[in-house]
């Protein structure tokens, strides 16, 4: 059996709820406390279904009960024998100017990757941006004092993209000589990310302007 998402009471170590998502879950789920009382959980699947008919499914659940609030099947991401597909990056729960959005990055094999912004309320696509390279690095949101938001998204082939978080437009791209599997860390206007590869392992620091 694949992809059983389970909630456990840490005080008693007893199960509270479980959900069979139908496929592997590689990405860490994200939590969002809405209206001060409602706990939302965002998660998604990879595509490793042995029936070979699986697709990447993104979901919003009630974090306290496991009830599915909505789901979105990524049409561009279906089973393929030659590629690792689906959600391996943790989603971004939007705040400030994008408090209505949750942003997922999905690896689509030969089709590169998709950065998908879904409306928190109903799971409908607000915007979608295709990147040429596959991506397993988690996106990171950065904000200015006015609450405007941008998304930093790295691709496996060494590209680091800065996207406008309101519409997904790629504003800037830099490229390094290495493979980017890790997620970036951002503090203030400084971005740090580690690269791997034979003879190419290094830590890079960029200033976001």
Describe the fold and architecture.
This protein has 209 residues and is mostly beta strands. Helices cover 0% and strands 50% of the residues. Strands 3-4-5-6 form a four-stranded antiparallel beta sheet, with no helix packed on it. Strands 7-8-9-10 form a four-stranded antiparallel beta sheet, with no helix packed on it. The protein starts with a strand and ends with a strand. The model has no long low-confidence stretch (mean pLDDT 90).
Unreliable runs:
none
For the largest beta sheet, what order do the strands appear in spatially? 3-4-5-6
In round numbers, the mean pLDDT is 90
Helix content: under 10%
- What is the beta-strand fraction? over 45%
Helices and strands, in order, run as: EEEEEEEEEEEEEEEEE
Largest sheet: 4 strands, antiparallel
Distance between the termini: 47 Å
What class would the helix/strand composition place it in? Answer: mainly beta
Shape: globular
- Radius of gyration, CA atoms, in whole angstroms: 17 Å
Count of DSSP H/I helices: 0
Tally of DSSP β-strands: 17
List keywords for this structure.
single chain, 209 residues, mainly beta, four-stranded antiparallel beta sheet, 17 strands, globular
Quick structural overview:
By secondary structure, the protein is an all-beta fold. Helices cover 0% and strands 50% of the residues.
Secondary structure: elements and pairs:
Blueprint: E1 4-9, E2 14-20, E3 30-34, E4 38-44, E5 55-62, E6 68-78, E7 92-93, E8 101-107, E9 113-119, E10 125-131, E11 140-143, E12 149-154, E13 159-164, E14 170-175, E15 185-187, E16 190-195, E17 202-207
Antiparallel strand pairs: 1-2, 3-4, 4-5, 5-6, 7-8, 8-9, 9-10, 11-12, 12-13, 13-14, 15-16, 16-17
């Amino acid at each position: 059996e694949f992809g059983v998402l389970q909630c456990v009471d840490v005080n008693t170590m007893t199960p509270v709820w479980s959900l069979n998502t139908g496929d592997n879950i590689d990405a860490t789920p994200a939590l969002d406390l809405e209206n001060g009382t409602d706990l939302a959980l965002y998660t998604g699947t990879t595509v490793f279904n042995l029936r070979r008919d699986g697709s990447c499914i993104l979901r919003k659940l009630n974090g306290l009960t496991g009830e599915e609030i909505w789901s979105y099947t990524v049409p561009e991401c279906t089973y393929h024998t030659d590629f690792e597909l689906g959600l391996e990056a943790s989603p971004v729960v939007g705040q400030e100017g994008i408090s209505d959005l949750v942003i997922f990055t999905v690896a689509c094999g030969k089709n590169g990757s998709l950065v998908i912004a879904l409306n928190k309320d109903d799971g409908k696509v607000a915007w979608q941006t295709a990147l040429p390279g596959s991506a397993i690095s988690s996106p990171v949101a950065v904000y200015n004092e006015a609450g405007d938001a941008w998304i930093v998204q790295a691709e496996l082939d060494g590209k680091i993209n800065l996207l406008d978080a309101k519409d997904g437009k790629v504003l800037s791209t830099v490229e390094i000589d290495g493979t980017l599997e890790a997620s970036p860390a951002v503090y203030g206007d400084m971005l740090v990310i580690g690269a791997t590869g034979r003879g190419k392992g290094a830590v890079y620091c960029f200033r976001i302007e």
